[in-house]
Amino acid sequence: KQEVTQIPAALSVPEGENLVLNCSFTDSAIYNLQWFRQDPGKGLTSLLLIQSSQREQTSGRLNASLDKSSGRSTLYIAASQPGDSATYLCAQYRGNTGKLIFGQGTTLQVKP
Amino acid sequence: NAGVMQNPRHLVRRRGQEARLRCSPMKGHSHVYWYRQLPEEGLKFMVYLQKENIIDESGMPKERFSAEFPKEGPSILRIQQVVRGDSAAYFCASSQPGISGNTIYFGEGSWLTVV
Q1: φ and ψ at B86, to 5 degrees?
Q2: Taking Cα atoms as reference points, which of B17, B8, B20 lies closest to residue B77?
Q3: Minimal Cα–Cα distance from A78 to chain B, Å?
Q4: Which of B27-31, B41-45, B79-83, B105-109 has the highest mean pLDDT?
Q5: Facing residue for B107 by CB, picked from A43, A99, A105
């Protein structure tokens, strides 16, 4: 059974700190992996998509890496800001479709 | 280019009533997915549809739930005889065919409350 696990479940940091969110998956035959952000009562905002042939993707202060051999992905957030407070979800694509296996998420709070 | 549109955003139903949730995919997208987010649980895949075809419904509850994506009009997720355990956020997503290199896009969700 494919599973995606995110650690930690919750994280609270002071503003300005660099932080790493972790995602691990059991199926090494990964296709693509995607990181999303979800604000309370809102939908999902796509942050970064890493294709299976790639090792990392960067967008602004965000960097996501993918290590298929160890079954891990990390999301690095540089110089965190209070506006980064949200739940971050990683999701593994199951084949060449939009059927995703989601982790439980990491809820991040950045304190001013 | 409008995103994935879902309506209603919030829906309240009494136990035993029917709930219909609608989803219009992004322009040019012919594949639709429904996901459910139960309180304190993660997002779970429910069903994958193309126009007039159900491709994968492995995540759909066996009873009371159905989905369609007609040739014309939005995709509909239908829940008959709702129970309190159906209270959740239901998200629709859409994609182009052959998703390699392409992401899927999610709507803002429909929040169903069963009282």
Answers
A1: -85, -10
A2: B20
A3: 24
A4: B79-83
A5: A43
